Amino acid sequence: MKTQTAQVQWEQRTQGLLLGLAVAFAVAYAVPIVAPDATGVVRRICLVTEWVVWGAFALDYVVRLSLSPSKRLFIRSHPLDLLAVLLPLLRPLQLLRLVSTLLLVGRRARMAPQIQLTTYVGGAVIGLLMFGSLAVLEVERGAPGGNIKTLGDAVWWSFTTMTTVGYGDHSPTTGLGRVLAVGLMLSGIALLGVVTANIAAWFISRFERDDVEERRQTAAIALLTEEVRALRAQVAELASGAAVPAPGTPEGPPVGTAPAPQASCAARQIDMP
Question: Which tens digits make up the pLDDT trace of 205-221?
Fold first, then answer.
Protein backbone atom coordinates (compact mmCIF):
# COMPACT_ATOMS: atom_id res chain seq x y z
CA MET A 1 0.00 0.00 0.00
CA LYS A 2 1.37 3.39 -1.01
CA THR A 3 2.16 5.67 1.93
CA GLN A 4 0.57 9.12 1.72
CA THR A 5 2.72 12.17 2.26
CA ALA A 6 2.10 14.63 5.08
CA GLN A 7 0.87 17.20 2.56
CA VAL A 8 -1.76 14.84 1.14
CA GLN A 9 -2.91 13.86 4.63
CA TRP A 10 -3.27 17.52 5.59
CA GLU A 11 -5.30 18.26 2.44
CA GLN A 12 -7.64 15.34 3.11
CA ARG A 13 -8.18 16.31 6.74
CA THR A 14 -8.83 20.01 6.10
CA GLN A 15 -10.89 19.71 2.93
CA GLY A 16 -14.27 19.54 4.68
CA LEU A 17 -13.39 22.38 7.06
CA LEU A 18 -12.29 24.68 4.26
CA LEU A 19 -15.40 23.96 2.22
CA GLY A 20 -17.50 24.83 5.26
CA LEU A 21 -15.58 28.08 5.65
CA ALA A 22 -16.23 28.81 1.99
CA VAL A 23 -19.97 28.47 2.61
CA ALA A 24 -19.64 30.87 5.55
CA PHE A 25 -17.80 33.28 3.28
CA ALA A 26 -20.62 33.08 0.73
CA VAL A 27 -23.20 33.94 3.38
CA ALA A 28 -21.12 36.78 4.78
CA TYR A 29 -20.55 38.16 1.30
CA ALA A 30 -24.22 37.93 0.29
CA VAL A 31 -25.89 39.42 3.39
CA PRO A 32 -24.75 43.06 2.97
CA ILE A 33 -25.65 42.99 -0.73
CA VAL A 34 -29.04 41.32 -0.46
CA ALA A 35 -29.93 43.38 2.62
CA PRO A 36 -28.42 46.84 2.00
CA ASP A 37 -30.28 48.25 5.02
CA ALA A 38 -28.46 45.89 7.41
CA THR A 39 -27.07 47.42 10.58
CA GLY A 40 -23.46 48.32 11.02
CA VAL A 41 -22.91 45.44 13.45
CA VAL A 42 -24.08 42.90 10.87
CA ARG A 43 -21.85 44.45 8.24
CA ARG A 44 -18.82 44.32 10.54
CA ILE A 45 -19.52 40.67 11.40
CA CYS A 46 -19.72 39.82 7.72
CA LEU A 47 -16.52 41.71 7.01
CA VAL A 48 -14.66 39.95 9.81
CA THR A 49 -15.98 36.59 8.60
CA GLU A 50 -14.69 37.25 5.10
CA TRP A 51 -11.21 38.08 6.35
CA VAL A 52 -11.18 35.10 8.70
CA VAL A 53 -12.03 32.77 5.83
CA TRP A 54 -9.34 34.31 3.68
CA GLY A 55 -6.88 33.96 6.57
CA ALA A 56 -7.79 30.28 6.93
CA PHE A 57 -7.06 29.66 3.26
CA ALA A 58 -3.82 31.61 3.53
CA LEU A 59 -2.79 29.52 6.55
CA ASP A 60 -3.69 26.38 4.63
CA TYR A 61 -1.39 27.46 1.80
CA VAL A 62 1.48 28.13 4.20
CA VAL A 63 1.05 24.74 5.91
CA ARG A 64 0.91 22.90 2.60
CA LEU A 65 4.02 24.74 1.49
CA SER A 66 5.88 23.78 4.65
CA LEU A 67 4.82 20.12 4.34
CA SER A 68 5.74 19.89 0.67
CA PRO A 69 8.98 17.96 0.00
CA SER A 70 10.03 20.51 -2.62
CA LYS A 71 9.07 24.10 -1.78
CA ARG A 72 10.13 25.49 -5.16
CA LEU A 73 8.19 22.85 -7.07
CA PHE A 74 5.09 23.50 -4.93
CA ILE A 75 5.17 27.22 -5.67
CA ARG A 76 5.66 26.63 -9.40
CA SER A 77 2.87 24.04 -9.56
CA HIS A 78 0.36 26.15 -7.54
CA PRO A 79 0.57 29.68 -8.98
CA LEU A 80 -3.17 30.36 -8.64
CA ASP A 81 -3.07 29.47 -4.95
CA LEU A 82 -0.28 31.99 -4.35
CA LEU A 83 -2.10 34.63 -6.41
CA ALA A 84 -5.31 34.05 -4.46
CA VAL A 85 -3.47 34.47 -1.16
CA LEU A 86 -1.69 37.67 -2.21
CA LEU A 87 -4.57 39.26 -4.16
CA PRO A 88 -6.55 40.70 -1.22
CA LEU A 89 -3.38 42.26 0.21
CA LEU A 90 -2.87 44.38 -2.88
CA ARG A 91 -6.17 46.22 -2.49
CA PRO A 92 -8.59 45.33 0.31
CA LEU A 93 -11.80 45.14 -1.71
CA GLN A 94 -14.61 42.65 -1.26
CA LEU A 95 -14.39 41.72 -4.91
CA LEU A 96 -10.73 40.72 -4.61
CA ARG A 97 -11.48 38.59 -1.56
CA LEU A 98 -14.31 37.02 -3.55
CA VAL A 99 -12.01 36.16 -6.45
CA SER A 100 -9.31 34.79 -4.16
CA THR A 101 -11.75 32.59 -2.24
CA LEU A 102 -13.25 31.22 -5.45
CA LEU A 103 -9.77 30.38 -6.73
CA LEU A 104 -8.77 28.62 -3.52
CA VAL A 105 -11.99 26.64 -3.24
CA GLY A 106 -11.70 25.62 -6.86
CA ARG A 107 -8.10 24.46 -6.42
CA ARG A 108 -8.94 22.38 -3.36
CA ALA A 109 -12.02 20.90 -5.04
CA ARG A 110 -9.98 19.80 -8.05
CA MET A 111 -7.58 17.94 -5.77
CA ALA A 112 -10.38 15.90 -4.21
CA PRO A 113 -10.44 12.53 -6.02
CA GLN A 114 -13.99 11.66 -4.93
CA ILE A 115 -15.53 14.72 -6.60
CA GLN A 116 -16.68 13.77 -10.05
CA LEU A 117 -16.42 16.06 -13.04
CA THR A 118 -20.16 16.56 -13.35
CA THR A 119 -20.48 17.56 -9.69
CA TYR A 120 -17.57 19.94 -10.00
CA VAL A 121 -18.95 21.60 -13.12
CA GLY A 122 -22.40 21.91 -11.54
CA GLY A 123 -20.93 23.46 -8.41
CA ALA A 124 -18.82 25.82 -10.50
CA VAL A 125 -21.87 26.96 -12.46
CA ILE A 126 -23.90 27.61 -9.31
CA GLY A 127 -21.03 29.39 -7.62
CA LEU A 128 -20.29 31.63 -10.59
CA LEU A 129 -23.96 32.49 -11.01
CA MET A 130 -24.36 33.36 -7.35
CA PHE A 131 -21.17 35.32 -6.87
CA GLY A 132 -21.41 36.96 -10.28
CA SER A 133 -24.93 38.15 -9.54
CA LEU A 134 -23.98 39.49 -6.13
CA ALA A 135 -20.83 41.18 -7.40
CA VAL A 136 -22.51 42.92 -10.33
CA LEU A 137 -25.42 43.98 -8.14
CA GLU A 138 -23.03 45.55 -5.65
CA VAL A 139 -21.19 47.39 -8.40
CA GLU A 140 -24.13 48.46 -10.58
CA ARG A 141 -26.88 49.19 -8.06
CA GLY A 142 -25.63 52.66 -7.22
CA ALA A 143 -24.19 53.52 -10.63
CA PRO A 144 -25.86 56.44 -12.44
CA GLY A 145 -27.71 55.17 -15.49
CA GLY A 146 -27.35 51.54 -14.43
CA ASN A 147 -30.15 49.08 -15.17
CA ILE A 148 -29.23 46.30 -12.74
CA LYS A 149 -30.97 47.41 -9.57
CA THR A 150 -32.40 44.23 -8.01
CA LEU A 151 -31.17 40.73 -7.28
CA GLY A 152 -33.54 39.35 -9.90
CA ASP A 153 -32.02 41.62 -12.55
CA ALA A 154 -28.53 40.50 -11.53
CA VAL A 155 -29.38 36.79 -11.66
CA TRP A 156 -31.04 37.16 -15.06
CA TRP A 157 -28.02 39.07 -16.35
CA SER A 158 -25.67 36.35 -15.04
CA PHE A 159 -27.66 33.63 -16.80
CA THR A 160 -27.69 35.44 -20.14
CA THR A 161 -24.01 36.34 -19.81
CA MET A 162 -22.72 32.88 -18.87
CA THR A 163 -24.70 31.25 -21.67
CA THR A 164 -23.39 33.95 -24.07
CA VAL A 165 -26.97 34.74 -25.12
CA GLY A 166 -26.77 38.43 -24.26
CA TYR A 167 -30.32 39.75 -24.71
CA GLY A 168 -29.13 43.24 -23.85
CA ASP A 169 -32.07 44.13 -21.61
CA HIS A 170 -29.65 44.33 -18.66
CA SER A 171 -26.00 45.25 -19.05
CA PRO A 172 -23.29 46.74 -16.83
CA THR A 173 -22.38 50.38 -17.29
CA THR A 174 -19.33 50.66 -15.03
CA GLY A 175 -15.82 49.52 -15.83
CA LEU A 176 -15.69 47.00 -12.98
CA GLY A 177 -19.09 45.63 -14.02
CA ARG A 178 -17.83 45.06 -17.55
CA VAL A 179 -14.77 43.28 -16.18
CA LEU A 180 -17.14 40.98 -14.31
CA ALA A 181 -19.09 40.43 -17.52
CA VAL A 182 -15.95 39.40 -19.39
CA GLY A 183 -15.05 36.97 -16.61
CA LEU A 184 -18.51 35.41 -16.64
CA MET A 185 -18.52 35.07 -20.42
CA LEU A 186 -15.14 33.35 -20.47
CA SER A 187 -16.17 31.12 -17.59
CA GLY A 188 -19.40 30.17 -19.33
CA ILE A 189 -17.57 29.27 -22.54
CA ALA A 190 -15.03 27.21 -20.62
CA LEU A 191 -17.68 25.32 -18.65
CA LEU A 192 -19.70 24.68 -21.80
CA GLY A 193 -16.58 23.27 -23.42
CA VAL A 194 -15.94 21.01 -20.43
CA VAL A 195 -19.50 19.69 -20.49
CA THR A 196 -19.38 19.10 -24.26
CA ALA A 197 -16.03 17.34 -24.02
CA ASN A 198 -17.28 15.19 -21.15
CA ILE A 199 -20.36 14.09 -23.09
CA ALA A 200 -18.29 13.36 -26.20
CA ALA A 201 -15.78 11.36 -24.15
CA TRP A 202 -18.64 9.33 -22.64
CA PHE A 203 -20.02 8.46 -26.05
CA ILE A 204 -16.57 7.56 -27.38
CA SER A 205 -15.81 5.32 -24.39
CA ARG A 206 -19.22 3.65 -24.79
CA PHE A 207 -18.58 2.96 -28.46
CA GLU A 208 -15.10 1.64 -27.65
CA ARG A 209 -16.53 -0.74 -25.03
CA ASP A 210 -19.11 -2.01 -27.51
CA ASP A 211 -16.41 -2.47 -30.15
CA VAL A 212 -14.18 -4.38 -27.74
CA GLU A 213 -17.07 -6.64 -26.73
CA GLU A 214 -17.93 -7.31 -30.36
CA ARG A 215 -14.31 -8.18 -31.14
CA ARG A 216 -14.16 -10.50 -28.15
CA GLN A 217 -17.29 -12.32 -29.26
CA THR A 218 -15.97 -12.61 -32.83
CA ALA A 219 -12.69 -14.06 -31.57
CA ALA A 220 -14.56 -16.55 -29.37
CA ILE A 221 -16.73 -17.66 -32.31
CA ALA A 222 -13.64 -18.10 -34.52
CA LEU A 223 -11.95 -20.18 -31.81
CA LEU A 224 -15.01 -22.41 -31.43
CA THR A 225 -15.15 -22.86 -35.21
CA GLU A 226 -11.53 -24.04 -35.28
CA GLU A 227 -12.17 -26.47 -32.43
CA VAL A 228 -15.21 -27.91 -34.22
CA ARG A 229 -13.16 -28.39 -37.38
CA ALA A 230 -10.42 -30.16 -35.42
CA LEU A 231 -12.96 -32.43 -33.75
CA ARG A 232 -14.52 -33.30 -37.11
CA ALA A 233 -11.11 -34.19 -38.51
CA GLN A 234 -10.38 -36.48 -35.54
CA VAL A 235 -13.76 -38.20 -35.88
CA ALA A 236 -13.15 -38.75 -39.60
CA GLU A 237 -9.69 -40.28 -38.90
CA LEU A 238 -11.11 -42.63 -36.27
CA ALA A 239 -13.93 -43.72 -38.58
CA SER A 240 -11.56 -44.48 -41.48
CA GLY A 241 -9.21 -46.48 -39.19
CA ALA A 242 -12.05 -48.68 -37.90
CA ALA A 243 -13.30 -49.50 -41.45
CA VAL A 244 -9.91 -50.88 -42.76
CA PRO A 245 -8.68 -54.20 -41.01
CA ALA A 246 -5.13 -54.49 -39.88
CA PRO A 247 -2.69 -56.39 -42.23
CA GLY A 248 -2.34 -60.22 -41.51
CA THR A 249 -5.55 -60.41 -39.51
CA PRO A 250 -7.79 -63.28 -40.75
CA GLU A 251 -11.21 -62.20 -41.67
CA GLY A 252 -13.68 -64.10 -39.52
CA PRO A 253 -17.38 -64.08 -39.70
CA PRO A 254 -19.10 -60.95 -38.81
CA VAL A 255 -19.60 -60.39 -35.19
CA GLY A 256 -22.91 -61.70 -33.96
CA THR A 257 -23.34 -64.32 -36.82
CA ALA A 258 -24.28 -67.86 -35.67
CA PRO A 259 -22.16 -70.81 -37.02
CA ALA A 260 -23.65 -73.11 -39.67
CA PRO A 261 -25.63 -76.08 -38.17
CA GLN A 262 -24.11 -78.58 -40.69
CA ALA A 263 -20.59 -78.15 -39.34
CA SER A 264 -21.78 -78.89 -35.83
CA CYS A 265 -23.50 -82.15 -36.87
CA ALA A 266 -20.41 -83.39 -38.73
CA ALA A 267 -18.25 -82.83 -35.74
CA ARG A 268 -20.60 -84.90 -33.55
CA GLN A 269 -20.59 -87.82 -36.05
CA ILE A 270 -16.77 -88.04 -36.05
CA ASP A 271 -16.64 -88.26 -32.27
CA MET A 272 -19.00 -91.28 -32.19
CA PRO A 273 -17.32 -94.85 -31.88
Answer: 777 777 787 888 888 89
